[in-house]
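Recall that a protein's primary structure is simply its ordered list of amino acids. Everything else, from secondary elements to tertiary packing, is in principle encoded there. The following example makes that idea concrete.
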Amino acid sequence: MAIIRANRLSKYFQRGKVKALDNLTLSVERGRIFGLLGPNGAGKTTFVKILLGLLQPTSGEAFLFDIPVQLPRAREKVGFLPENHRFPLYLSGEDFLVFSAKLSGMRDSRKIHDHIESLLKRVRMWEWRRVKIKKYSKGMMQRLGLAQALISDPELIFLDEPTDGVDPIGRKEIRDLLLELKQCGKTIFLNSHLLSEVEAVCDEVVIINKGKVVLQGPVKTLTALDRRYRIHADFQNAGLLDAIRRKYDVLEAQPTYVSLTVSSVSQLNQIIDEIRRSGALIHAIVPERQSLEDRFIQAIQQDGKADFDQISLDRMQEEEQ
C-alpha cells in the first residue's frame, strides 16, 4: 500500500513565472526508507511542504494514508524534522520534549516522562536533558530534533537533512536508528544532500530536477554492477592509451589504470587482447559498482538543466563535514 501518493502535482510562484513542481507523480510504499534527491532549486522543499499541508499546490493532488493532504487528519500519524528548525533556546532539551508531547496530545505525566527518557537515550542525549538548548551544538540539536519527530510515535516520518552537523559516529548511530525504525514498520521519507548516507539506508530514491522526476528506483538497482571495469596495467605507452580512448568509452585514464564502459563481455576481451599485444602487463581487471552519486550526476546531466557549480560546491561541503 502506498503511504504517500502524489499525482500530477504542480506548484507555481510569481504568478506562474516560476515552476517549483511540474506534474510530479510518485508514490512511496509503507515500511520503506525513501530518499528524495535533487540539486538546489529542484523543488524538494516545496514538495515536502505540500505533503505536510504547509503549501497548497497549484494543481494536482497528494495523499498521506489515502487522505488528501489538505485535511489535518492526514498528519495525525506524521513526525517531521525540518532542516531549519527553530527550537526555544531558553528551554532545556527535556522541557522542550515535554512541550512537544503535550502538543501531540499526550496528557499522562508519567507516560510522558518515560517516553522522553526512552527517546533521549535512543538519540544519545539523556545526559544533556537538563541543559538549555542554547548551549547545544548543531549536532546535538539535530539529535533533539530527531527525538521531537518521534515524540508521537508516528507511522510516517519526514526527515530533512537529519545528519546535518552531526559527527561521523553520530551519523552511524542515526543510520542505525533509522534502520531500527524501519524494522518496527515505520516509513521514513528522507531528504538529504549526503548521498553516501542515502545510499547506506534507503530502499528506494527519486531524483527530481526543475520540479520533475528524472530517475526513480530501488537503490540496489540504481547502483548495481554494470558494464564498467577498471583495468590495472602498465599504460606508460601513451600511444596505447590514446588508441583505447579513440575506440572505447573511457571514463578515466591514468598511467597505471583505465576505467571504461563496455558494450559486452566480448568487447572487454577485445580490449584485453589489444593491451596484451602492446606488451603491457595486466595486473587486475575489476568490475566497478556505480555509486548513487554517479547515478545522481548522470541523471542531472542528462536532464541538462542543473547548476553544476552549485552541485560541486555541495559535494565539497559534504566532504568537509
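Confidence is low (pLDDT under 50) at residues 306-321. The domain at 225-289 is CATH 3.30.70 (Alpha-Beta Plaits).
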